[in-house]
Write a structure and sequence with these properties.
The chain is built from three helices and five strands; from the N terminus they run βααββββα. It has a single domain, classed as YaeB-like fold, CATH 3.30.2310. Strands 1-5-4-3-2 form a five-stranded mixed β-sheet. About 35% of the residues lie in helices and about 30% in strands. A hairpin with a 2-residue loop joins β3 and β4. The chain is of the alpha+beta class.
Length: about 110
Amino acid sequence: MGKTIEFYKTLNGKCPVEKFLDSLDGKTAQKVVWVLKLIEELDIVPKTYFKKLSGTEAIWECRIQLGSNIYRIFCFFAKQNRIVLTHGIVKKTQKTPKNEIKKAEKYRKEYLKL
């Protein structure tokens, strides 16, 4: 059973994940697209590429690594097997920054109110 990926738009119409994706170079963007296709198509996605963030209610991360660079795209599940991508970061530390998780949770709450 496939999943559908959609991009979250803020109340004022901005799309943070699109802005993040536009900032990536071509090779990185290709890897991100490959990982997103994997997430859409596989019923069970390896934790290497897709993992629920511990300590959160419902925030997941798409995990992309290219060379020594690590990228994270935050997301959550919505109705009908939809995965809503909120925003992305270049991960520079071992732990995922709490403010980025809070941002994803805020976006999720806004989305679910609509």
